[in-house]
Design brief:
Number of strands of chain A: 11
Number of helices of chain B: 25
Strand content of chain B: 15-25%
Largest interface: A-B, 31 and 32 residues
Structural class of chain A: alpha/beta
Distance between the termini of chain B: 40 Å
Structural class of chain B: alpha+beta
Helix content of chain A: 10-25%
Helix content of chain B: 25-40%
Largest sheet of chain A: 9 strands, mixed
Radius of gyration of chain A: 16 Å
Strand order of the largest sheet of chain B: 7-9-6-10-8-11-12
Shape of chain B: globular
Largest sheet of chain B: 7 strands, mixed
Oligomer: heterodimer
Strand content of chain A: 25-35%
Strand order of the largest sheet of chain A: 2-1-3-4-11-10-9-6-7
Chain lengths: 226, 721
């Protein structure tokens, strides 16, 4: 089980994600600097959170044009499971691998707090271990986390089962309280909250088991594909 | 930008000639109060700095403590007061940047930030609100972008900070002992400047910080770029791993002048540099501007010539500029050239060591006057007083602030903001608790006991998580040292801190002095801030949900000492009286008792009493779990006093402890054995918080209403003024 973690200049949750993948879930994990090529034998790719390029111009927009993104696109086309967390989600959206935009929070300030997700699609490589509507205690930390799509796109997302996670409360005026989505094919998932911050009981004050299922789903998915 | 006449004389005598213009600029920067500590160095020698865990290396900018298993933590504290008073966003943000670079230059990765913010009256003064909001944004944007969690701090408002700002930033680093960068250099080594380009921002910053704030000097404010700082962190740690760094220093106050002279002096070497080799962001910068610019996000690295190509490659990977600006010479001179022509040449030791000033000190007459003032009688309605205290910006919940800080990044934050101290998990199975504390209201009325009280408070806070204090940093912030009364308060606080440090064997591993904090309105109150780190080798105490039937115990005696209390100042608008005193023996007994209790793992929560006294501390416990509480005041160990004083006295060494009923006997047995004063004073449950004395209700509030006020006051005040 081999997972790649992409690192852009300014990524800052890469080491957290690496620790969870390698030390908690025992995946063979490797960093890929944005100027490198992705290895050919990966089972999954993760774009971690942070402030790539200092969020210059718009969060994720410069990273979306990094050389490594063309490798991500190729692997995505082959059906590889790709997870974008926070800035990773913003990058996938800017790279047009996922629909929608992430806007500034309506409060115009950064927000760091624990919240709760509801699983709306349990068929993706990252959610197959969940029951539908299962709840996940998980933290968010972002200044540009407000998901937006127009009504037509929202209807299409609903129709194609592309909404993966919703917040159980209106935490930041995201349309339809959307916290995470996937592409039509269902192999690319982007989410604003940080699962890597929730899977260890030591730092999760509520319950670390639900968020762990995100990574256990990946194990099941890759195992099934072999 | 000038030297005092006697300083000029001293310089001429030492270099045996008249200095030229460039040399004057360089020395003036380094001999500013901010960089040279000329008013304070002599007195700071009182502070104990050694201890079994303390690691000393020449040229280190942060304190280093051994935490076992070949790991160390580093800690440093800084302030950016003057710039934040003019441009709070940039001033506060660059404050974070500076302290982070100090942690980095020890060779450790920064893992946490704490901020101490002090402004004028934000309820009445829109300018203070503006300063506060923007300082918080500045710290948030900078720390969040770096991916370093801001895990704790303090927020306080007081009229003495009107039109001013105290922005204190502390940082913690963590790493392997063998990776500490032992600063060392020899002739022929290269001097390299990495990071952002040098511009005209911040010129004269250290001088600006060494003067009272009379005019807005915007050019002296530095501009933040956390993205470049993040790249510098990664590049520096990689360069360290690959042996490319023989010595390193961050550029802060005084820019290149200070960094070069201090490095040369500390290492006993000479440094020659050429300002035309420095990468600049503006054209036609004069050499003296280049030498005194305080542009941010720059580090000075000394490397072996054979390692230079690799250092350049690492910088290229992260796309940060790397300029070879000079080399280490065999003499001990600081030589500055421009395009090869020598512009300045002086012994590094002379430049780096300003002549010290011994200001006179005199006890202020106001102190005895204020201490003896007739104190106010009790208010008629203690319930409204308590409710009003919950909305006091100095007491209300600070979630509006820390909700803007990413406090989870790094996945080390075991005890989150909102508790007594933050707790971080280390890589060796141990935990680090950290807190900073100040109390200018106490320090104004009694500098000695006030300062000692701040130290005790920071210790109490880390003890509440189960941590044993292992080290301290201090930040001493005062008005002009040229005022003998102010200087007296400065010396008294150093004496007090030293006494406490010696008694508890908690060494001072670093700190800062910030003087000349004055505006045309006058000086700030004496504001020493103490940061304490504690180590937990067992299990940290994480606050648990308090439930119906849980019991409340107070450890420690409440004394009649309300001078400088929030109750006197916020409710009665009264400044005066005697502030609380620390009794060292009692303090130690109580701390030890609490630590033993925590180790039994039978406690649900521990919370210390500070601002607002036991009344507020008890409310905070109840509100945190949104549960009612009945407190029987007569059961508190106490000196006789009226009920309002009992509720709001800010006596030290007091802890509230919450246990399940089933564990009460074991806990009280332990407390009896520990020979500390304690009382079983309350039980949790119902929808109200009720304080009574001998069955007579003294104050009663609804939990839900009180929660709303306590939790939302500060945010509402700032958003809607």
């Amino acid at each position: 089980m081999k997972v790649g973690v992409i690192v852009f200049p300014g990524s800052n949750c890469d080491r957290d994600m690496f620790h969870v993948l390698k030390d908690v879930f025992k995946f063979e994990t490797k960093y890929f600097w944005h100027e490198d090529r992705l290895a050919g034998d990966l089972d999954a790719v993760v774009l971690p959170g942070g402030f790539s390029y200092g969020d210059r111009l718009r969060a994720g927009v410069i990273a979306a044009h990094s050389p490594i993104i063309s490798d991500v696109k190729k692997l995505a086309e082959k059906g590889m499971p790709i997870l974008g967390v926070c800035n990773g989600f913003q990058i996938l959206v800017e790279a047009q691998l996922l629909p929608g935009v992430l806007l500034k929070n309506t409060t115009l300030s950064f927000m760091c707090r624990w919240t709760e997700l509801v699983v709306e699609n349990n068929k993706t490589p990252f959610t197959n271990k969940f029951a539908l509507k299962q709840k996940i205690p998980i933290p968010i930390a972002n200044g540009e986390g407000r998901y937006y799509v127009d009504k037509k796109t929202l209807d299409s997302l609903k129709k194609n089962h592309q909404i993966v996670f919703r917040y159980s409360e209106n935490i930041n005026d995201s349309v339809f309280n959307i916290a995470g989505i996937c592409n039509k094919e269902g192999n690319i998932v982007g989410m604003m909250p940080h699962p890597e911050r929730a899977v260890e009981p030591e730092i999760n004050p509520i319950d670390a088991k639900p968020s762990s299922l995100i990574f256990e789903s990946l194990i099941a998915n890759v195992g099934a594909r072999r | 930008m000038s030297l005092q006449p006697q300083e000029l004389q001293y310089l001429e005598k030492k270099i045996k000639r008249k200095p030229n213009q460039t040399e004057l600029h360089i020395v003036a920067a380094e001999w500013s109060e901010h960089c040279s500590y000329k008013s304070s160095k002599k007195h700071l020698k009182l502070l104990p700095t050694r201890g079994p865990r303390v690691i000393h290396e020449k040229g280190f900018d942060s304190g280093v403590l051994d935490v076992g298993d070949n790991y160390v933590i580093t800690i440093h504290i800084e302030s950016h007061n003057h710039p934040s008073a003019v441009e709070p966003y940039g001033g506060a943000a660059t404050g974070v940047g500076g302290v982070i670079r100090d942690i980095l230059s020890a060779g450790t990765r920064p893992i946490a930030i704490l901020d101490g913010l002090r402004f004028g009256d934000i309820q009445k003064d829109p300018h203070a609100r503006w300063l506060f909001k923007n300082a918080v944004s500045g710290i948030a944007d900078y720390g969040n972008c770096l991916g370093i969690p801001t895990v704790g701090g303090e927020v306080e408002f007081d009229k003495s900070y009107t039109n001013y700002a105290l922005v204190d930033v502390a940082a913690i680093g963590f790493g392997k002992k063998e990776k500490l960068i032992k600063n060392d250099a020899k002739e022929g080594d290269l001097v390299v400047l990495i990071g952002g380009p040098t511009g005209r921002d911040g010129i004269g910053g250290s001088q600006f910080a060494s003067d009272s704030l009379e005019a807005e000097n915007r050019s002296a404010v530095q501009i933040p770029d956390p993205f470049i700082e993040k790249l510098i962190i990664e590049a520096t740690l990689q360069a360290r791993d690959e042996g490319c760094i023989k010595a390193i220093k961050d550029l802060g106050g005084g820019g290149l002048s200070c960094a070069v002279s201090e490095t040369a002096d500390a290492l006993g070497i000479g440094i020659e540099l050429d300002t035309s080799r420095v990468h600049t962001r503006e054209a036609d910068m004069k050499p003296h501007e280049i030498m005194t610019s305080e542009s941010q996000e720059r580090m000075l690295i000394i490397t072996e010539p054979v390692k230079l190509p690799r250092l350049e490659e690492i910088c290229a990977k992260f796309k940060i500029k790397c300029s070879v600006i000079g080399k280490v010479s065999q003499n001990k001179m600081m030589t500055v050239r421009s395009d090869g022509k020598i512009l300045a040449e002086m012994p590094a030791e002379i430049v780096a060591n300003a002549p010290l000033i011994d200001w006179p000190a005199k006890e202020p007459s106001y102190i005895k006057q204020l201490q003896n003032k007739k104190e106010p009688g009790p208010v008629s309605n203690l319930t409204s007083a308590l409710v009003k205290m919950l909305s006091n910006p100095n007491i209300a919940s600070k979630n509006w602030v820390y909700g803007q800080y990413d406090h989870e990044v790094g996945i080390r934050t075991v005890v989150k903001p909102g508790a007594d101290a933050a707790v971080l998990r280390l890589d060796n199975g141990k935990y680090l608790a950290v807190k900073i504390d100040g109390n200018p209201k106490h320090c104004y009325l009694d500098p000695k006991n006030g300062a000692m009280g701040c130290f005790e408070e920071a210790c109490r806070n880390v003890v509440c998580t189960g941590a044993t204090p292992i080290g301290m940093v201090d930040h001493l912030q005062f008005g002009s040292p040229q005022n003998p009364e102010i200087f007296w308060t400065f010396i008294e606080s150093i004496r007090a801190i030293s006494e406490f440090s010696k008694f508890f064997n908690i060494p001072c591993v670093g700190g800062k002095v910030s003087l000349y904090n004055e505006t045309p309105y006058g000086p700030i109150k004496p504001t020493p801030i103490i940061g304490v780190v504690g180590l937990i080798e067992g299990t940290p105490l994480k606050p648990q949900k308090i439930q119906q039937g849980d019991i409340l115990i107070v450890v420690g005696k409440t004394k009649d000492e309300l001078g400088g209390s929030e109750y006197f100042e916020y409710i009665h608008d009264f400044v005066g009286g005697r502030p609380p005193k620390v009794n060292l023996e009692e303090s130690k007994k109580n701390m030890d008792a609490i630590l033993s209790l925590i180790q039994t793992q039978k406690l649900k929560a521990v919370h210390d009493c500070s601002k607002g006294g036991l009344g507020i501390a008890a409310c905070e416990l109840a509100l945190g779990s949104q549960i009612g509480l009945s407190v029987y005041l007569e059961k508190m160990p106490q000196q006789t006093m009226t009920e309002d004083r009992l509720l709001f006295s800010e006596s030290h060494s007091r802890y509230l402890v919450v246990v399940q009923k089933a564990d009460l006997e074991q806990v009280t047995n332990l407390l009896n054995k520990a020979n500390v004063e304690f009382g079983v004073i309350g039980d949790f449950g119902s929808k109200d918080i009720v304080f009574s004395f001998n069955h007579k209700i003294v104050a009663k509030l609804r939990v839900d209403k009180a929660y709303n006020i306590w939790f939302n006051s500060l945010g509402e005040l700032v958003s809607h003024g």
